[in-house]
Specification:
mainly alpha, 2 helices
Length: 118
């Protein structure tokens, strides 16, 4: 409407128009608030998704590091077991050699004693 048309309206018509504009304004404010809430929720979801992705990536890295540590620990245990097995084997060989020397020594003494008898 133009200014001239407004000037020719009755007071009741103007009040009605103002009332309708106020209702429309209230509806638009409510719609605006609802849209702001939706936007805020979407922004939160997007930021949460980013945060969750970052956390997931960090956890993935943590799990990879934990797996690597576990693998290193197991390989160290395996290496230690081999070293211990070698040490035990060396000890058994030394013990066997000492027993063999004792047996040989006793055999020599026994043979010398038997030779002396004849």
């Amino acid at each position: 409407m133009t200014d001239k048309e407004f000037k020719h309206l009755k007071r009741s018509d103007l009040i009605y128009i103002i009332s309708e504009y106020q209702k429309k304004q209230e509806e638009l404010l409510k719609e605006n608030e609802a849209l702001r809430k939706k936007l805020k929720d979407k922004e939160y979801k997007m930021s949460s998704a980013g945060s969750l992705a970052e956390i997931s990536a960090k956890l993935n890295g943590l799990f990879e590091a934990a797996q690597q540590t576990a693998d290193d620990y197991i390989s160290q245990l395996e290496g230690t077991s081999l070293e211990e097995a070698k040490k035990k084997a060396d000890a058994i060989i030394r013990e066997a050699e000492e027993k063999a020397k004792q047996i040989i020594s006793e055999a020599k003494k026994s043979s010398v004693n038997n030779d002396n008898k004849y």
